[in-house]
Amino acid sequence: MPITFFDKNQQASMAADTIRDYLVSGTIRNSVNFPATALPDRPTGTIRFTVVNRNEPGMLAHITEKIGSAKLNIVQQINQSRGKIAYNVIDVDPGEETINLKELQKEITLTEGVLSSRVLFGVPGAGYAKNVDGEYFI
């Protein structure tokens, strides 16, 4: 099997592409701690959430329950895990509903077992929230 070598410019480009994909679409590639995860492009008019949680039974149900309580329809989602961590990418259709994204994100993030979340809507890289021992940080 041939061995492929990359020069420093190619390596930097690959790293930049990986970071851009994470910021823009929530895609995770080449991570040591997180599972490889990719969801097709976000359908027009939808809002993408990413959620990091402990890999425990019932966590996905708790997360989707919060989304359903906000009267949002899940258009597509993926849940991948590696060891004690699970990573979710969820596209929701707000439909005709007026939603408070900050409040929904806070509810999802403060769910027991959720470690962090992001709303990928608008500015790439913005919309990050973290749950530290039941306290909400944005």
Description of the structure:
- The structure is a single chain.
- The mean pLDDT is 89.
- The protein is built from three helices and six strands; from the N terminus they run H-E-H-E-E-H-E-E-E.
- It has a single domain (8-137), classed as ACT domain (Alpha-Beta Plaits), CATH 3.30.70.260.
- 28% of the residues lie in helices and 30% in strands.
- A hairpin with a 2-residue loop joins strand 2 (73-82) and strand 3.
- With 138 residues, the chain is α+β, with helices and mostly antiparallel strands.
- It is globular, with a radius of gyration of 16 Å.
Tally of structural domains: 1
Computed over alpha carbons, the radius of gyration is 16 Å
Tell me, briefly, the overall form: globular
Low-confidence stretches: none
What is the share of helical residues?
25-40%
Which range does the strand content fall in? 25-35%
Total number of beta strands: 6
What is the count of helical runs?
A: 3
**Order of adjacent strands in the largest pleated sheet:** 2-3-1-4-5-6
For this structure, the CATH topology is Alpha-Beta Plaits
What's the CATH first level? Alpha Beta
Give the biggest sheet: 6 strands, antiparallel
CATH superfamily: ACT domain
Structural class label: alpha+beta
CATH architecture: 2-Layer Sandwich
Mean pLDDT: 89
